[in-house]
Amino acid sequence: MSDTTFDFTSRRAFVTGAGGGIGHQIACELADAGCTVTGFDIQAKPEPFPPAQGEVRYVHGDVCDAGAVAHAVAEAARDGLDFVVNGAGVAFMTRDGSVVDVDMDVWERTLQVNLQGPVNVVRSAVPHMLRAAKGGAFVHIASVAGARSMDNVLNAGPLDAYQVSKAALISLSNGLALTYGRDGIRSNTICPGAIRTPMTDAIYEDPDRISAMENRTPLPRLGRPQDIAAACLFLLSNNASFITGIDMMVDGGLTAKLC
Predict the structure, then answer these.
(1) d(CA 63, CA 88)
(2) What CATH superfamily is the domain 12-248?
(3) Closest to 195 in 3D by CA, of 170, 214, 176
(4) Catalytic site residue from 58, 162, 180, 204
(5) pLDDT of 68 over the 90 cut
(6) Is 157 a residue whose pLDDT tops 80?
(7) Is-catalytic flag, 204?
(8) What does the alpha-carbon distance between residue 163 and residue 222 come to, in Å, rounded to a whole number?
(9) pLDDT band at 1, cuts 50/70/90?
(10) How far apart are the C-alpha atoms of 51 and 53, rounded to whole Å?
């Protein structure tokens, strides 16, 4: 848990990627702050979800299935919808590469999950927020790779499908911020740096690679899902009520070296 205490009692959130890693951490911390959370993921529900002040509902589904997303969002929004977190994502670290020769199945699946998935969520959620006329807040989990060009730490080559998908997600968020700001709907992205999650475990099997990433980062450690969750809860909270259209780097200062 973060050191900052948030109170999201009587608020409702829809969180994709809640089956593990960053999305799961965000769902748990929102619930612990009193929020009613609907988690959505293609993975089975993690057991157990820790006890929390708020209710946690879990829906098994694929963000690429627009119908399944629409149904899950509608159920989550029956009593209102305040927050949406697009946390689902994939990175095919061993198969991604240059756009010139990457397997197009990898390219298409990466963009389906990392871009079309959030689009499906946004298209389903915004009408509910507009009808309620109470505003709302989106946080999309992008990546420093979407804001800066970065190499694949596994093979020192490009990671074009992942990078393009996250850059597009940042652009999508900015568009939402501009379009729906007058309706009280905010939209921001978080761009994690080197975060150790189940999805990135393969990257950090080698202790030398961990040391290399720690030494590369001005705050010399790997990030944790809790670091991203703390930033997410801030951006969703009333403390961030005048913040929209930003890309928050939560990377230990990594991108400061890449400017």
Answers:
(1) 8
(2) NAD(P)-binding Rossmann-like Domain (3.40.50.720)
(3) 214
(4) 162
(5) yes
(6) no
(7) no
(8) 20
(9) very low
(10) 7
